[in-house]
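Per your request, structure below.
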């Protein structure tokens, strides 16, 4: 019976992956060339190359085969790499063949995803079935201490820089406080608030859920709202909702339903034909990251690269642009110096070190995911790692790896995940 169920799931996966690819192709054509939103048509050419379509299908299927063979819901590594595959790689292949874009860069991106998958296969073959060793040290005390420190700092930040909860029901006016926060709040406070909203508060929710003291949830939820009123970032509100949603899907073993859900979402957006919904649900969600990715490649293949001069090596390497890559693209390509053209971790890696950078950062990301996998494997509390780290991880779709580790708190998420898993050994 289990074998038949597994075969049914695999057939459904193949079917839904094919529908997803077709829907993305139709969405690109419909939005930019039937619906014709001329506001955003620049940079989204329609130049169909059917040989590149074959390439797109071959690599979509071959790299997607990993998630056909393994159960996604049994692995943090597979869950996160699958999300990148679905949200980044498949739309990337669609954009590649429909806009007849650079083949060299296409194979660079294929290489990055291949590295991610090969590292997982190597881990399962050589290092899997790790078991937790018994220890007398109580990590729960450290976890509670971290909660207390961040709670105190967040309350202090709200008393010093916070605004009225009025903005929670008037989201269109948050830009007033967003500009003010950029001027007033020190950089180190911004990091703390980001780590709190994206990592520490989700960890505290995981802790409270684990000990089943649900009435205590009012504390982290209130703090999250207060943090929002400090800098007006809507992402703090919506990221927590997305976090909880993905956590429920993963904990219920329903990751295989992600593709059908995306197919329903795209179908709904196409049928609704609302300007704003289509712009966000099709253009922004699936094709802006891909367009920017090729723009980065086109610019930095003919201009000097950054060589990590805007990272921790800035003291040793001169940045000839005096800008980070998102602002370089905004200024010299889009002629909007105040805009920040954020892009995914692969294109950002190319802007620093070219193809070597893509390989290097793909390996680093694979090692990070292996760390999550190593500490969570065979642990019954593995599902809570998703709740703790997903908001930080999702930033990779529109941010560099180093920025995600530092600013978006992925490194903090790894530490908090380890503390949580070691605090509870059921």
């Amino acid at each position: 019976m289990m074998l038949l169920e597994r075969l049914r799931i695999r057939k459904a996966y193949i079917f839904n992956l094919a529908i997803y690819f077709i829907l993305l192709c139709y969405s690109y054509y419909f939005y930019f060339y039937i619906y014709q939103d001329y506001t955003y048509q620049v940079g989204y050419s329609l130049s169909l190359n059917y040989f590149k379509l074959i390439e797109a299908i071959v690599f979509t299927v071959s790299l997607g085969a990993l998630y056909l063979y393994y159960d996604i819901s049994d692995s943090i590594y597979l869950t996160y790499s699958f999300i990148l595959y679905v949200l980044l790689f498949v739309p990337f292949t669609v954009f590649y063949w429909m806009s007849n874009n650079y083949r060299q860069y296409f194979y660079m991106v294929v290489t990055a995803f291949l590295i991610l998958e090969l590292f997982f296969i190597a881990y399962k073959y050589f290092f899997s079935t790790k078991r937790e060793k018994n220890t007398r040290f109580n990590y729960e005390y450290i976890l509670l201490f971290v909660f207390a420190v961040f709670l105190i700092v967040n309350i202090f930040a709200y008393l010093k820089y916070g605004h009225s909860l009025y903005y929670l029901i008037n989201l269109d006016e948050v830009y007033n406080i967003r500009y003010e926060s950029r001027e007033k709040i020190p950089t180190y406070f911004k990091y703390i608030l980001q780590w709190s909203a994206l990592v520490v508060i989700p960890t505290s929710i995981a802790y409270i859920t684990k000990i089943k003291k649900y009435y205590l949830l009012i504390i982290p939820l209130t703090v999250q709202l207060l943090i929002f009123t400090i800098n007006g970032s809507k992402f703090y509100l919506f990221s927590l909702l997305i976090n909880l949603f993905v956590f429920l899907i993963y904990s219920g073993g329903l990751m295989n339903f992600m593709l059908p859900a995306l197919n329903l979402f795209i179908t709904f957006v196409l049928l609704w034909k609302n300007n704003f919904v289509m712009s966000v649900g099709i253009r922004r969600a699936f094709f802006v990251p891909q367009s920017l990715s090729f723009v980065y490649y086109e610019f930095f293949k003919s201009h000097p690269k950054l060589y990590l001069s805007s990272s921790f090596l800035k003291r040793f390497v001169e940045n000839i642009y005096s800008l980070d890559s998102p602002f370089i693209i905004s200024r010299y390509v889009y002629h909007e110096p105040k805009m920040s053209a954020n892009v995914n971790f692969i294109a950002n890696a190319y802007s620093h070190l070219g193809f070597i950078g893509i390989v290097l950062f793909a390996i680093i990301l694979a090692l990070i995911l292996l760390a999550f996998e190593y500490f969570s494997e065979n642990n019954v509390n593995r599902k809570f790692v998703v709740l703790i780290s997903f908001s930080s991880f999702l930033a990779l779709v529109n941010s560099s790896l180093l920025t995600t580790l530092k600013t978006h708190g992925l490194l903090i998420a790894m530490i908090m995940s380890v503390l949580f898993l070691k605090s509870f050994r059921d």
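Residues 1-129+254-302 form one domain.

Regards,
D.
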